[in-house]
């Protein structure tokens, strides 16, 4: 195990002394690519927002810079080689910001949120940006009419975020869609879904912020990259708030996610680490909202579907015809390229956790999705292999709850605390029951056991 320190620098002239412990591996994160142009997609995002007449606050920009540090550490420091238990890393960040006092005030909440999200041990310190970059966001010229957007909405290319966008437009809203352009299959799904929305709502304002943020594989010298990406929602939320801070008014950042996945109750006792993500868990969202309030950002993050199963989201979509047309463009699979060695293209595997939830949700419609494993009843699936492991884990959880329905009120607390809105706990237990029942209907008659 090695401890890592990631130090952000605003250009070659930024030489502030940053003390490091003897056992820390220090990595420099260069934030500037030219005289004043910010790198890692942030400068391009500022330009794209300016074209939409949006000018984020300096604190909003700080969030994007902080997210770059978090995303770099999370994706470029291997859990296998840099932790004692092949999971928990010790990561320290030193981040240049515009308002040191405000950011120092949120350190406890920020650390709590990061530790909860990724399962690592984070230490975050801040320092003042160099004077040359004290004001980095361009100023907006005075105008009588402000930007048209009434909310920001995360837009991943998945089915839930697609439904969230459709519902927002159908209600008369004008959301700014916010995406992180990841690997090719995800980017393609985002593009196809966005173009489908733009074509359908051609008389409306349909715009998005799409940020490309990637880091070289050798950013941390002699350390392999990490592919668990459990911290990615920190980047998603930060980009959404970054954009929303440019609205010039109170705003909501919507994070559309079905209640079963948002809770993500472990399906069995072994489902830990990367198999139990907390991307939109209520506790994590609450910490973000606490942090935004402390920073003086007049925005909130909300999941409008916290009490809906994925099937209920599909059935309740405000424009079922448009959704049906765009379902093939959306992407839910955890690893859509895993079938290439079998000669398949980019497609849903059909057996990972998000694929099974998607299949269950679309069982009530004529699902046009291509699944590599198309027939779940074709054979007895080996639970020691990936295809059977997910199926059997779901079956175990479904059978456990069927035998003792009252366990739902206990199990929903396993992924994390639910003390911020205790009045929601009965509804959360109920959406957990309904979500598992939805998948249970899909898996009826499907067989899985050890080979």
Describe this structure in words.
With 451 residues, this protein is α/β, with parallel strands linked by helices. The protein has a domain at 331-449. The protein is 39% helix and 13% strand. It contains 16 helices and eleven strands. It has helices at residues 42-51, 58-76, 79-82, 100-105, 107-118, 159-170, 184-200, 232-244, 259-263, 282-295, 310-316, 320-326, 353-361, 386-403, 408-411, 425-443; strands spanning 3-9, 24-30, 90-97, 121-128, 151-154, 175-180, 207-211, 251-254, 299-302, 381-382, 448-449. The chain has a five-stranded parallel β-sheet, with helices on both faces. A four-stranded parallel β-sheet has the order 2-1-3-4. It has a two-stranded parallel sheet with strand order 10-11. Strand 6, helix 7 (184-200) and strand 7 (207-211) form a beta-alpha-beta unit. The chain is globular, with a radius of gyration of 22 Å. The model has no long low-confidence stretch (mean pLDDT 94).
How are the elements arranged and paired?
Layout: E1 3-9, E2 24-30, H1 42-51, H2 58-76, H3 79-82, E3 90-97, H4 100-105, H5 107-118, E4 121-128, E5 151-154, H6 159-170, E6 175-180, H7 184-200, E7 207-211, H8 232-244, E8 251-254, H9 259-263, H10 282-295, E9 299-302, H11 310-316, H12 320-326, H13 353-361, E10 381-382, H14 386-403, H15 408-411, H16 425-443, E11 448-449
Parallel strand pairs: 1-2, 1-3, 3-4, 5-6, 5-8, 6-7, 8-9, 10-11
């Amino acid at each position: 195990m090695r401890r890592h320190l990631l130090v952000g620098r605003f250009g070659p002239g930024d030489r502030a002394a940053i003390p490091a412990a003897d056992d820390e591996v220090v990595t420099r994160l260069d934030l500037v690519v030219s005289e004043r142009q910010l790198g890692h997609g942030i400068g391009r995002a500022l330009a794209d927002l300016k074209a939409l007449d949006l000018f984020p606050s300096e604190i909003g920009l700080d969030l994007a810079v902080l997210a770059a540090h978090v995303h770099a550490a999370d994706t470029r420091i291997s859990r296998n080689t840099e932790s004692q238990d092949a999971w928990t890393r010790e990561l320290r960040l030193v981040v240049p910001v515009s308002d040191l006092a405000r950011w120092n005030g949120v350190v406890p909440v920020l650390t709590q949120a990061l530790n909860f999200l990724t399962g690592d041990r984070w230490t975050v310190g801040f320092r003042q940006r160099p004077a040359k970059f004290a004001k980095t966001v361009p100023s907006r010229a005075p105008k009588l009419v402000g930007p048209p957007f009434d909310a920001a909405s995360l837009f991943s290319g998945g089915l839930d975020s697609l439904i969230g966008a459709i519902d927002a437009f159908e209600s008369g809203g004008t959301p700014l869609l916010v995406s992180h352009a990841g690997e090719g299959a995800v980017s393609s799904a985002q593009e196809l879904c966005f173009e489908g929305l733009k074509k359908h709502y051609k008389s409306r304002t349909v715009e998005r912020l799409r940020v490309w943020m990637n880091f070289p594989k050798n950013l941390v010298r002699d350390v392999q990259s990490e592919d668990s990406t459990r911290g990615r929602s920190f980047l998603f939320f930060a980009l959404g708030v970054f954009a929303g801070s440019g609205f010039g008014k109170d705003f909501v950042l919507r994070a559309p996610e079905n209640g079963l996945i948002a809770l993500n109750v472990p399906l069995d006792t072994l489902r830990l680490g990367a198999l139990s993500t907390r991307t939109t868990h209520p506790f994590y969202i609450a910490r973000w909202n606490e942090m935004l309030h402390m920073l003086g950002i007049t925005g909130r993050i909300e999941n409008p579907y916290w009490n809906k199963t994925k099937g209920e989201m599909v059935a309740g979509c405000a424009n079922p015809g448009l959704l049906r047309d765009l379902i093939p463009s959306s992407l839910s699979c955890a690893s859509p390229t895993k079938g290439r060695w079998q000669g398949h293209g980019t497609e849903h595997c059909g057996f990972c956790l998000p694929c099974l939830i998607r299949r269950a949700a679309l069982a009530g419609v004529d699902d046009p999705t291509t699944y590599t494993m198309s027939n779940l009843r074709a054979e007895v699936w080996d639970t020691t292999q990936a295809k059977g492991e997910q199926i059997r884990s779901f079956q175990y959880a479904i059978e456990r709850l069927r035998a003792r329905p009252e366990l739902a009120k206990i199990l929903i607390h396993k992924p994390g605390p639910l003390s911020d809105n205790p009045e929601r706990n009965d509804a959360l237990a109920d959406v957990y029951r309904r979500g598992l029942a939805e998948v249970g209907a899909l898996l009826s008659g499907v067989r899985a056991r050890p080979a």
